[in-house]
Specification:
Layout (H helix, E strand, L loop, with lengths): L7 H9 L15 H4 L4 H10 L10 H4 L2 H26 L3 E2 L1 E2 L6 H13 L1 H34 L1 H14 L7 H8 L3 H26 L3 H9 L4 H39 L4 H10 L3 H29 L12
Antiparallel strand pairs: 1-2
Helix pairs in contact: 6-14, 7-8, 7-10, 7-12, 7-13, 9-10, 10-12, 12-13, 12-14, 13-14
């Protein structure tokens, strides 16, 4: 080294003498196991040998929130209150505006239910009513939902269909009974048609409202991403309108049961409505109340099934504003 200049042989010799531990040496990357002096293979083997810690599942009773418990208690309390009013009114024969003089007691209705449960006639009536309600409701969904999507989407289609809808919608289902008997070749078809009429208009109007309530930004975003019109319906419009559609399904199911019972009372030969009207004709009061309770239970079951399907098809509603997460 002369005059501060290092020649090439001396530079090579100095680089060769640089050790890995020299702080002036360039950094080298070492694993944590090598830094501790242990080989990497040992740590990998030990990590694979350790089984994962099992996740402890909470008991079912603890997974139910306090709000769900409170809702269940309130539901039981409301039903208990209803039966308590019924029991007290029939026991003391209250006649203050509401006359409980001829109303059967809960025990008489329960005894009637046991007698009917032992026979196949009452079960046959229930099966016929459920078959009719499912057939009419399914037809209403297959026609009402696609038609509602198209009417809500296209202005010219709406201008063509809505005048007819607004003319037919105010006509009650009971007024369709004579016309349906003339239109259809059998009583069974006419009853299914009346059930369809009862469910069709709530489903149609709520579907139209769901399309109108859809944010236009979503449709424009789908167009910008290159979605065709069928894909826009399938992936944007239909999911956005689903909450309103299921509201229409719940309302339509209730109206369909009302329409079905009215049709069975007038022109039916089987069904819960026919059973209730026959009991009234025979002055069998416990059977009348049994038919009414059966209609309520069947309607509750159908509405609960609709809500369950809605939760399964729309899981994102659990994260909507105001919902319990």
């Amino acid at each position: 080294m002369m005059g501060g200049v290092v020649n090439q042989p001396q530079l090579k010799s100095r680089l060769a003498l640089v050790d890995d531990d020299d702080p002036q040496a360039p950094p080298t990357f070492k694993s944590s196991s090598q830094a501790r002096g242990a080989p990497a293979e040992t740590d990998a083997t030990s990590s694979q040998a350790k089984p994962p810690m099992p996740v402890k599942q909470k008991p079912l009773l603890r997974r139910v929130s306090r709000d769900q418990w409170l809702s269940a208690v309130l539901a039981v309390a409301s039903i208990t209150l209803l039966f308590a009013v019924w029991y007290l009114g029939t026991k003391y024969r209250i006649e203050f505006y509401i006359r409980f003089k001829n109303v059967p007691t809960p025990y008489e209705v329960f005894r009637q239910a046991l007698e009917m449960g032992a026979s196949t006639k009452f079960v046959t009536n229930i099966i016929n009513s459920v078959r009719r309600i499912l057939a009419g409701f399914a037809i209403a969904i297959l026609i009402g939902v696609p038609l509602g999507l198209v009417i809500g989407r296209y202005r010219h289609v709406r201008s063509f269909f809505m005048p007819v809808v607004e003319i037919l919608r105010p006509i009650p289902a009971i007024a369709w009974v004579p016309m349906s008997i003339m239109l259809w070749p059998s009583n069974e078809a006419s009853i299914v048609y009346i059930t369809f009429i009862g469910a069709f208009f709530p489903i149609l109007l709520n579907t139209i409202h769901g399309v109108h309530s859809l944010d236009g930004v979503l449709i424009r975003a789908g167009r910008c991403l290159g979605a065709s019109e069928p894909r826009l319906f399938l992936y944007v419009i239909l999911p956005g309108a689903l909450p309103h559609i299921f509201t229409g399904l719940a309302v339509g199911m209730g109206v369909a049961w009302v329409s079905l019972i009215a049709a069975e009372m007038i022109s039916g030969q089987f069904g819960v409505g026919y059973f209730t009207w026959e009991a009234y004709s025979l002055v069998d009061y416990p059977a009348i109340v049994l038919g009414m309770i059966t209609i309520g239970v069947l309607g509750l079951a159908c509405s609960g099934l609709i809500r369950l399907i809605g939760k399964l098809l729309m899981p994102w509603l659990a994260f909507a504003p105001g919902s319990k997460k």
